[in-house]
Each structure stands twice: as C-alpha cells, then as structure tokens.
Design brief:
heterodimer, A: alpha+beta, Rossmann fold, 2 domains, six-stranded mixed β-sheet, five-stranded antiparallel β-sheet, 9 helices, elongated, B: 574 residues, mainly alpha, MetI-like fold, 24 helices, 73% helix, globular
Chain lengths: 365, 574
C-alpha cells in the first residue's frame, strides 16, 4: 500500500540528516507505528509523507501513485495528496466551530468536484457521529476539552475518507486516564474504518498496544521493524532493548551453540542457556537481555557461589508493582516484582531469572 | 508497487523545488515584492542622485554649502540632544504607564488605558500648537497662571527643553503601546515566582520584569529615537522662532527658500537618513537576537495583577498627573481657544464672551470639507491597502525559506528611516517629471502614505503571522486547501486582531501626517493637517482649535470603533 524507499531529509544547518535513508512498507488497513525518542526523525518522516517537508532523496508511493520521487523530480503538494493528518497540537482552527472545522476539507475541493451543501452537512454529521462529537457540532472549537479536540482533529482527518491516515503523537497532550481511553478508541476506529494508519510516538506502551507493526527509529535510521511481540521479545540491538520496555544487559561470551538455536553463554552470573534467532559464532561477545519483570528476588536462598548475590539500593512503588534497583558485583540490575514480593531497601538478596525469558544481542563494537 | 518513474533525472531548482515548478502563489508574491522595492528604492536613488549630482555632473558642492553656512557641530548636537531627550522622556513615561496599567491593581485601569492613548489621536501639528497656547512666554495660559508667582514667561516652550517636553509627551503613547504589548505577553508566573521567593513588587519589577522586558525596551527606544530624529512639527513650530536648528528644520528651510535648494536639502537629508539608518540597523540586529528571549508561551494565562499595596495611590497620582499634562491640558486649551472670537489667553473675561461662531464657520468652509474628505479617503484607503499587501509579504518572510527574504524585510522596513520631508521632496521631483499624471492628484499622497507606513504594516502583520502556529496552516494544506484558500480562510481570520491593530495605527498616523504632505499636496488636494498648518500661519487660532478638536473627536471615535471591532473578532487561543 505505502512504500517508502531511501528517504533522506536534511535540514539547513543540521550536521547529520534528520532522516537518513530509511525504507519501509505498510500493508493495506494496517496500523504502522514509528517509535523513537525525540529527535530520531520520526516526525520528519511523517511530515515527508504528508508533503509538508520536502525530502532530499528517496521515493514515496501510495497505492501505486508516486507522491515523491527525488530522482524523477516529482513532489505532489500536501494539498493534493488527499491524506488525513492529525497533529500533536491538534491544529484545530480556533476561529471556526466544530462543524466548520470538520467541513473545511470538503469545502476547499475545487468547484467542479465539490459536494453540494446538504451533502457536506450529511457527511460531516456522519463523521461527527462516528467520532461521538455529534452533540457538540455548533460549539466553538476552543470550548472543547483536550479529549474532544483530539476527536475533532481525528474527525477532520477522516472526513475525506483518506487512503492513509497520518498521526503525529496525537495522544501526548492528554492526561494519563484519557490517553488510555483514546488509545482504545483510536484503535477501534482504525479497525472499523479499515483505514491504513501511520502513527508516530515516543511512547512504547502506545506503540506496543496499538500497532500491527512497529519501526523503531534512532538518529534518522530504522533500527528494527517487527510485530510488537517480536520487537519486545527479540530486540535486535542494544538501543531497541533499552528503548522498548527497558532491559538489564549482561555481558557475556558465547561458549557453544546447542540445538534449537540455543546458545550457551558465559557471564558473571554463571553459564546461561539462551535462545536467539540471530546467529553467533562461539567466542563472540554478546549481551544477554533480561527484562526487569523477569527478574525475581529471593531472600532465603542466598548462595554465595555464582555471582548472583546483591543488595537492594532503592525501590520505587508503582501501585501494581514495585521497581527495585539491585547492585550485583559491578552490575546494577533492575527488577520489577509484585508488591507482595517486594523487598525493602538495604536487604541482601539473590537474583533469579529463567534463561528462556532472555535473549541475545550482539555486543557493541 | 510501481517502479520509480522513468523520467530523466533533473537537477533541483535553486529554491529547492524539484523541477523548479512555478507555484500558484508566485505571481502574487512577486507583485508585492516588486511594489515594496519600487516604493522604497526609487526615492532613495533619487535622493542620492540629487545630493551628489548637479545637472548630471558629480559634485560635493551641496555638502560644502550645506555644512559651511551653519555651525555643523551645533546642528548635530541639537539634533541628537532633542532626539535623546524626547526619547528618554517618552520611554520612561510610556514604560511606567504600561506597567502600572497592564500589570498592577491600580484603579480605573481601562479608563487610564484610554487616557494614555489620547495624544495618539492628536496630530503633531495640533499638539504642538496646543502647547504654544499653553506655554508660550507671551501668550501661554500656564505662564499667565504662574505670572503672579514666578514673573512673566516662566516657561518657555520655544527652547530646546520645550521641544523635548512636547515631543516626549507626544511620543509617550507609542512607547506605552509597545511596552503594554510586551508586558501583556509576559507569563505572569515568572513574576509570581519572584514574589513567592520573597521579593517585594519593586524588587520583582527591577530584578525579573525589567530584564525580561529588555528586548522590547531596546526596540522601543530605537523606534522612538528614529521618530524623534525625524520629527518635523515640533522643531519647525518651536525651534524656528528660537533659532534652535535640527536637521529637519534645516531641510524645511532649504526648501522654503526661493529658489528651493534641492541639492542642499538632499545633503542634509542624507545625514539625517544615515542617523536614522544606524538606528534601524541596530533595531534589526537586536530584534533578531531577541528571539531567544520570547516569553510568549501561547498557553492562555489570565494575568493576576501585581498588588501595589502602599504604592497604589502614589502610582495612581503619577498616572493622573501624566494624563492631565499630556491630554487634558492641551485639549482644554484648544476647547477654550475654539470658543473665543479671537485669540486671547484664558481669563474670566474670556469665559463671558464665549461663542460657537468658529464651529459655524467650519461647516461653511468648502476647502475644509474637501480636506476632511481627502483625509478620510487617504486614511482608510492607505491603512487597508498597506495591511492587506503586508499580510502577503509577512507570509513570505515568516513562512518561507526563500533566499533573500531578509532583503524584502529590510526594504519594507527601510522607509521608517526616511524622514517625511525627505520622502516628500523625493516624490515631488519624481512625479513632477514622471510621464504619469500622478502629481496634482490624491494618488501622490497615497503613494507617500503607503511608503511611509509600510514599516508599521510589515511589523504588525509579521508579528501576528509568527504567532499563528504553523500547524494551523499545514493542517489546511493537508486537508486539500490551496495556498490562496488557506491564506483567505485560515491565516487572514486568525491574523485579524493584529491586522486591525496595525490598520488603526496606520489610519491614525495617516490622518495626522504633515511633513510629507506639506511638500507634495496641490491646491484642491489638501488634507486636514495642512489646513491646520495654514490656519496657524494665518493666525486663525479659534478656527484652528475648533477644527482640531473635531478632528480629534472623529479620529478618536474611528479608532475606538475599530478597536471594539477587533476585540469582537479576537479569537481566543489563536
């Protein structure tokens, strides 16, 4: 459906390109997320798709239509791309009411192709209904709450029934509760309307919860593309492991390769059998990735031998869980346990984790 | 997915658009830029040519003549002292007023706000004459009042100090407006943080508010200094009788001689232009640097006024003294003079012979009615034309990355450095020779006003353009709106409060414009300020006062109506 190839965007005065030759594909009716920290180029990529920034090189195609081609010198203007776009700040026009904001895209269609007024009214009401704003139609746009403005921006983006919906951190201005609610709502709408969506966020929870596919970006490049589960369970790099979910990284050396892609890895915490889809040669340096929620703390099983003894340096109560920071030898390990299993600060503990919950990534050169 | 289109690779155009495609809005942009360039550069080119060439041969004779006849040192000294003094006075008064009215709990704030702006609707020529009625050593009302105590002629308005006082008071509302805007856009949390850290109101003002205001303050100082250097009415009416020369009055004298010494005037004008240009250049550099200092957050805040406490009444008294001095006294003396059959200093005797005859005379004066029509036509037309065209230019400046846009900005702002008299003489000669029938019509005045007030237009529209979030425009494009639809349906409505504010200001300054008009008007095309000037020269003081008061009333009403309109149109959260 959407194909992006070798996209490059440099800003004036910027030493490195904001977007550095990225490529990806999005299938019909899929929810595709660009996830990354601020400044990684995800928003710039989205703006290139929308036609608001002009890439320096690369190709963008949507359903067989070339939107941009650096080589062929094609750049379809934003107003002619016919995409739906939702801004982080919503970009609701404050001088129009709810109805006029949504009707705007329909009223700027060239005269020959424009719908009649009753048709426009009907279409807008239909969209407002779907988005559950129908009762606020005559309200001034500035009188809406944050969540309602968010819906309004979505309604405006959807009113033209665009082939592609672009969303730029649309939930980041909402408070935590509302954000969760809108996350579900947004996903429901996308699925119901079968619209292809490209979603930009720095929030891994959003990305994991909503997407069919996630592309994790750093410094203008895509680090890894995959289904949420794959990205979380099998991060391809230290950056992905760290950024998505947080991870304990334990230095190790591959000893031998066992059947079923299991590697025997020698670490400061003893010999671990870890499965990995990536191939490693015996003797190569690796990092063992252990998610904090897979680390258990034990106070009655203090064995001295295998380097797993440590002391709790600090705790953080999260309500449904407790975060612990444990120093183990030269390492600092994070462990997340149920409140009932939490350990007070200063306690001697031994840490335990099952190797089947671990994965391997190459050690940085 | 399809293959990359097979078209031959093309080099990208200079502006960075693949294929160098001409966009729909390009002709409009080119047209406004050409207009700006024409209006600004032609008079300057003429000025240089006039000052350095005598009948086509290069010469420096005009400069020699201009600066040998008179003491150059005294001329420069007077000009600088006059500009410096009136700027200091205006900025001090204007900033103090703005702070008290905008940010504190002083009583009657709305009323004070309006009163502080009154001198703005009084044309400079009328304001100066009112002060002559008040403080002339021979006939001044204040002097008559003080005579029993200090002896005759205690206050002499015909002096450098008098000039500074009158010009300073007349410029103060401009400083007030600039600073009030800056105070209003400051996040009050910054000040509240200072107060909750234990600072009193004075300390908070000195340590937090003032440093934050520094960019706005420097900008105001420079703008006012430029205005003071170029001031014509005060030096001509107050300086000439006393022999206190500044550049503008020298230019005026050179042109009033017969035959007019255009070359000499050009030589003075170039010096004046240089002075003003230094100011403009400094202003441009500073405002570029000041961007990082912006305290406008765009988040709506409702400023909680600073509690003045014990300072409340002294502050109120200071504001009231200013209002009386700057607005009430001049208007009162005009009112008195307008009701007299002939001019006399205010006295009980005068009160008994009050008459409305001068107002009656006004209504039957054909020249006057014509002038009123011309003034209104020019004011409304010029303000509208300037704001609309500058809105387009400001889009070009604020929203695009087109190379050389700073040049357009400079060209549109440069006329602020061209003194009115200088522009007048340049336009006079250009359109006397031009084959187009513009001289002798209102069009030459329209061109002059457009050129002179373009800088205000570009500034106010650039500021309002910059305040509109880029995404409001981008979302319109993403919705399929063309450039023109976006401009008309999104940008113009959102800019409207700012555009109307600029429009009001340009209308006001157009209505009171004198220094350019006086050189280029022809009989039949007089404007009101010219009529006032002529009445003064003829000694028709009561008629002048009556006319002036009516003019103040009408412009005040117009400004108030336009202001209310802009408040109604104002959009929250824009």
């Amino acid at each position: 459906m959407l194909t992006v190839r070798g996209l490059v965007k440099r800003f004036e005065g910027g030493r490195v390109p904001a977007v550095d030759g990225i490529s990806f594909e999005v299938e019909e009716s899929q929810f595709f997320t660009l996830l990354g920290p601020s400044g990684c180029g995800k928003t710039t990529t989205l703006r290139c798709l929308a036609g608001l920034e002009q890439p320096d090189a690369g190709d963008i195609e949507l359903g067989g239509r070339v939107l941009f081609s650096g080589e062929a010198g094609i750049n379809v203007r934003a107003s002619e791309r016919g995409l739906g776009l939702v801004f982080q700040s919503y970009a609701i026009w404050p001088h129009m009411n709810v109805f006029d904001n949504v009707a705007f895209p329909l009223t700027v269609v060239p005269r020959g192709r424009r719908m009649s007024r009753p048709q426009i009214r009907k279409r807008v009401e239909q969209v407002l209904n779907v988005i559950r704003l129908d009762e606020l139609s005559g309200r001034a746009a500035t009188d809406l709450s944050g969540g309602q403005q968010q819906r309004l921006a979505l309604a405006r983006a959807l009113v033209m029934e665009p082939p592609l919906l672009l969303l730029d951190e649309p939930l980041s201005n909402l408070d935590a509760r509302l954000r969760e609610e809108m996350r579900v709502e947004l996903k429901r709408l996308q699925r119901e309307l079968q619209v292809t969506a490209v979603y930009v966020t720095h929030d891994q929870v959003e990305a994991l919860a909503m997407s069919n596919t996630i592309a994790i970006m750093a410094e203008g490049r895509i680090e890894q593309v995959g289904r949420p589960r794959d990205v979380y369970q099998h991060p391809a790099s230290r950056f992905v492991a760290d950024f998505v979910g947080g991870a304990n990284l334990i230095d190790g050396v591959v000893g031998s390769r066992e059947p079923n892609d299991v590697y025997r890895v020698e670490t400061a915490m003893g010999m671990l059998d870890v499965s990995s889809s990536a191939a490693f040669a015996p003797g190569s340096r690796v990092l063992v990735v252990v998610r904090p929620e897979h680390v258990a703390l034990s106070t009655n099983n203090l064995r001295a031998g295998d380097g797993r003894l440590g002391r709790v340096l600090g705790t953080g109560y999260l309500g449904d869980a407790v975060d612990h920071v444990v120093s183990v030898g030269a390492l600092t390990v994070r462990a997340r346990t149920a409140p009932s299993a939490s350990v007070v600060h200063g306690t001697e503990v031994s840490i335990e984790f099952a190797p089947e919950h671990c994965t391997l990534i190459p050690h940085d050169p | 997915m399809g293959q990359v289109t097979e078209a031959a690779p093309r080099r990208r155009g200079r502006a960075g658009w693949p294929g160098g495609r001409i966009r729909a809005e390009t002709p409009l942009l080119v047209a406004v830029v050409a207009l700006v360039g024409y209006l600004t550069l032609l008079p300057l080119a003429y000025l240089l040519w006039q000052a350095f060439f005598d009948d086509g041969t290069p010469t420096l004779a005009f400069f020699r003549e201009a600066y040998s006849a008179f003491g150059l040192g005294e001329l420069v000294w007077n000009s600088l002292l006059f500009a410096f003094g009136s700027t200091v006075l205006a900025v001090t008064v204007g900033t103090g007023l703005a702070y008290v009215v905008v940010r504190t709990d002083v009583p009657m704030r709305t009323l004070l706000f309006v009163a502080a702006l009154v001198p703005l609707v009084v044309p400079g020529v009328l304001y100066t004459i009112a002060w002559i009625f008040l403080a002339s050593p021979r006939i001044g009302a204040l002097n008559k009042l003080l005579e029993p105590v200090f002896g005759p002629g205690a206050i002499d308005v015909f002096s450098l100090w008098g000039m500074i006082l009158v010009e300073g008071l007349h410029l103060a509302p401009l400083a007030f407006l600039l600073m009030a805007a800056a105070f209003r856009s400051m996040d009050p949390a910054l000040e509240e943080a200072a107060v909750s850290s234990g600072a009193g109101p004075l300390t908070a003002f000195r340590r937090v508010t003032l440093p934050l205001m520094r960019p706005a303050l420097t900008a105001s100082i420079l703008i006012l200094a430029i205005r003071a250097v170029e001031a014509f009415e005060v030096p001509a009416l107050l300086g000439l009788p006393d022999g206190t020369w500044v550049f503008t009055s020298r230019i005026w004298r050179s042109l009033a001689e017969y035959p007019p010494a255009y070359g000499q005037a050009g030589a003075y004008a170039l010096s004046l232009l240089t002075l003003a240009l230094i100011g403009v250049l400094a202003h441009t550099l500073l405002s570029r640097r000041a961007r990082s200092f912006q305290t406008v957050t765009g988040k709506g805040f409702r400023p909680r006024p600073v509690q003045l406490g014990a300072w409340r009444w002294p502050a109120t008294a200071a504001v009231l003294i200013y209002v009386v001095l700057a607005a009430v006294l001049p208007l009162l003396v005009l009112l008195y003079v307008s009701t007299q059959p002939f001019y006399s200093s205010p006295s009980l005797e005068g009160l008994s012979q009050m008459t409305l005859s001068s107002y009656r005379d006004l209504l039957g004066d054909d020249q006057l009615l014509r002038a009123a029509k011309n003034s209104l036509l020019l004011g409304l037309g010029c303000a509208t034309a300037v704001m609309l065209s500058m809105a387009v230019v400001s889009w070009l400046l604020v929203r695009t990355r087109i190379r050389g846009r700073w040049l357009v900005d400079g060209l549109a702002f440069l006329p602020i450095a061209i003194p009115g008299l200088v522009l007048g003489v340049a336009l006079l000669i250009i359109y006397l020779r031009a084959p187009v029938p513009i001289y002798g019509t209102l069009w030459i005045l329209f061109i002059a006003y457009f050129t002179r007030f373009m800088p205000y237009g570009i500034r106010s529209s650039s500021i309002s353009m910059a305040q509109i979030g880029r995404e409001l425009e981008e979302s319109a494009h993403a919705c399929g709106a063309s450039w023109w639809s976006t401009f008309r349906r999104i940008l113009l409505p959102l800019m409207l409060p700012g555009l109307v504010a600029g429009w009001i200001y340009i209308m006001l300054v157009s209505l009171r414009e004198l220094s350019t008009s006086i050189l280029i008007y022809s009989p039949g095309d007089e404007v009101l300020s010219i009529v006032i000037w002529e009445h003064y020269e003829n000694g028709a003081f009561p008629e002048l006062a009556a006319l002036g008061l009516l003019m103040v009333l009408v412009t005040g009403a117009l400004a108030a109506a336009a202001y209310r309109l802009s408040v109604r149109l104002g959009v929250r959260g824009a």
